[in-house]
Amino acid sequence: MYVVTDKGGAIALMFAALLFLGTWPAVLTLLERRGRLPQHTYLDYSITNLLAAVLIALTFGQIGDDTPDMPNFLTQLTQDNWPSILFAMGGGIVLSLGNLSTQYAWAFVGLSATTVITASITVVIGTTMNYFLDGRINRAEILFPGVACFLTAVFLGSAVHSSNSADNREKLAGSSNYKVNQGLNEDEEMKGDAKMNEVTTDMEAGSYVSDSIPKGGKAEYGTAEFLLELENRRSIKVMGSRTIVGLSIVFFAGVCFSLFSPAFNLATNDQWHTLKEGVPHLVVYTAFFYFSVSCFIFAVILNVFFLYRPLLGLPRSSFRAYLNDWNGRHWALLAGLLCGFGNGFQFMGGQAAGYAAADAVQALPLVSTFWGVFLFGEYRKSSRRTYVLLGGMLFMFIAAVAVLMASSGHRQTS
């Protein structure tokens, strides 16, 4: 079994995990914005997410000597270690539920703000739990100021979303193509319906026809026309929804994310002494395998159910329709690989340097915000207040990841 034994290697793995875990949400967001049903996307993603865990287990988990204290992956599959397996599978379930929730939250709150808030909650709750589970191997005087930075980012992220939502409402209120239902009489409402029907035509290649955009043109990022174009094209319709709806989904996802890393920690280190005497702890690769299996099973069950009983006004689908939907499937499969390898690298680094320090990868919004701003045009043409809040949020994340990295300890393996 390959074991990361030095702090430098652990930090390198964390940075790779940070890049991967910050990129896969952008891929799924891209597919939702192109109109692909999230149920179809998540089923594809789940397949390669499990495949990544299997590949890691059969390669890194089989390299090197097979010793009684640190058995290889295949050897450990036959051992009596069910208490640890259940902790690992419990972590996979809450991660699956959190990822599934964020897929809807990205539509309501935006990629940048969603990843900021969920990552911050994950660190505030999960990192604190990991600190004590790890026997306090991380330096508290450095670690907890980093946690405080993430806590501050929770409030800044919520403020960014609220401010940006107000900016968008102001843009739409001044658009001749946006129908405001309140205060319209019946004749005006019928005219508004006809106007909106015009906007929904000619949607090829993400463009549409409106008074301000010539046929075949494309709306400028941040304009009311861009927001209308996006709403017409995307699979999850969010225009007119209350701010509390999106934030509720985000906070629920954040709580789920905060639990998966401590559960994985318990699975690999058995701090509660649930294993029988003489049974070795689960190695990180075996735990990650069971973690990913439960994540896959739970995701498949939920998403097949949502095909026939969709959430948030999405259209019904079927398993046959999913199998025949090849539009963007390769992107969803890529996202699963990125997430799978990102999680695997995070756990490998955490086993060496402490899971509390490995939670520094929750600074992934630095990567996701880059994609959100440059790929999806988030916060374009927003108010000065929104830009100030966004800058403060990113500054707190930069400080937080530096502090959590500096708190890294070293776990004794013998």
TrEMBL record:
Subcellular location: Membrane
Entry-linked InterPro entries: UPS_plant, Ureide_permease
Topology relative to the membrane: Multi-pass membrane protein
A Pfam family the protein falls into: Ureide_permease
UniProt superkingdom: Eukaryota
Transmembrane parts of this sequence: 12-31, 43-61, 81-98, 105-130, 142-161, 243-264, 284-308, 329-348, 354-375, 387-406
GO function term, MF aspect, one: uracil:monoatomic cation symporter activity
Keywords: ATP-binding, Membrane, Nucleotide-binding, Transmembrane, Transmembrane helix, Transport
GO CC field: membrane
The family this protein is said to belong to: Belongs to the plant ureide permease (TC 2.A.7.19) family.
Identification of the protein by name: Uncharacterized protein
Organism of origin: Spirodela intermedia
